[in-house]
Write a structure and sequence with these properties.
Length: 346
């Protein structure tokens, strides 16, 4: 999830664990400790653009690192606050829960988490919630801001803190249920439209859990469509395009290209543009909701005949106010402003 969400989640968990003894100090410590796993973004700067994708949420989000850091940070806190009424066991419990819930929440997103690093490079991702979801974040944020106005021993403070955690946790569980419903909608539509596929992946779009993208694949063909829980009609319009795997095969000897394909978990498409090969990670969708929009995660590969240059494409200019407005309308089932999607095999 985004840094703000992880910070307020850490604050809420720390408050629930040591808030009665430490008061607002628990909120601050929760924010700091809850941010630690995401500090890998600073380390990632020392790696090439592709390796950065794997460093982020890699070892810093592993079970092993949590087990190593928890007692060390717990002992450090007892040294920093020797007169605190919180026991070493309680400090350790708080640190474990803050770090653990950070990693656990990231597992529900699409990016992928190196939970078993360094023993396995498999990226765990359940893809039930977007990296930015306001309906998950806002209850936590409001509860943290509100409880800080109450004394640490106040019963109201504990109720407010727990309410934020309960509401956000229930919402997170509902995203799991919603994903099963969304999967069934896409499967029914693919079957009804006689679109053959061997793999289906459903992905929540940013901001809410209402709008989803489905990616169906068979051999070298992809079929993508969008569905909102507010859509008045069940029909999902699919766009089709090629994976173009043959364009990638000659480059797989290059470690960067191989790592890029591994990061996409096989959900990529390739095409040539202005003499360069463009590889799109389909799991994060497009900046817009039509075929003309560039993909959010895209890498360009150029070659001078001897060396390959691999760099991330900057397509952020595609997110205009008009595109964002159409996206918001689409969340709530308004498809009138969308461009007609044509089935095109590229």
């Amino acid at each position: 999830m985004d840094s703000l969400t992880q910070a307020v989640l850490g604050a809420a968990v720390a408050e629930a664990t040591i808030g009665r003894k430490e008061g607002n100090k628990s909120v601050l410590l929760g924010v700091i400790i809850g941010t630690i796993p995401d500090l890998d973004v600073f380390i990632a700067r020392f790696f090439d653009p592709v390796q950065r994708l794997l460093v982020h949420r890699g070892f810093s989000h592993s079970i092993l690192l949590i087990l190593l850091l928890t007692p060390l940070i717990g002992i450090l806190l007892t040294k920093i606050y020797p007169r605190s009424g919180t026991s070493l066991r309680r400090w350790i419990l708080m640190v474990f829960l803050v770090l653990g819930t950070h990693v656990l929440l990231d597992l529900f997103t699409t990016y992928g988490t190196g939970l078993f690093e360094p023993f396995s490079h498999y990226r765990v991702e359940w893809s039930t919630i977007a990296i930015v979801d306001l309906l998950y974040t806002v209850p936590l944020l409001l509860s943290i801001l509100l409880l800080m106005f109450f004394k640490r021993t106040s019963g109201a403070r504990r109720i407010i803190g727990r309410a934020g955690l309960i509401i956000s946790t229930c919402y997170l569980l509902l995203t799991v249920v919603n994903k099963q419903y969304i999967n069934s909608r896409f499967k029914n539509q693919l079957s009804g439209q006689q679109i053959a596929y061997t793999e289906l992946k459903t992905i929540p779009m940013p901001l809410t859990n209402f709008l989803w993208m489905g990616i169906a694949r068979q051999n070298d063909d992809y079929h993508t469509g969008y569905y909102s829980v507010f859509d008045e009609h069940d029909t999902i319009r699919f766009s089709s395009f090629r994976r173009n795997e043959l364009l990638i095969l000659p480059l797989l000897k290059d470690k960067r290209v191989k790592n890029l394909i591994r990061f996409t978990k096989g959900y990529y498409s390739a095409r040539f543009d202005k003499g360069e090969l463009v590889i799109n990670d389909l799991r994060f969708g497009r900046f817009g909701l039509d075929n003309d929009s560039p993909w959010i995660f895209a890498f360009r590969i150029s070659s001078d005949g001897n060396n390959l240059e691999v760099y991330e494409a900057d397509n952020s200019e595609a997110m205009t106010e008009e595109v964002f407005a159409r996206f918001i309308k689409r969340i709530f089932g308004d498809t009138s402003t969308l461009k007609n999607r044509k089935t095109v095999l590229q």
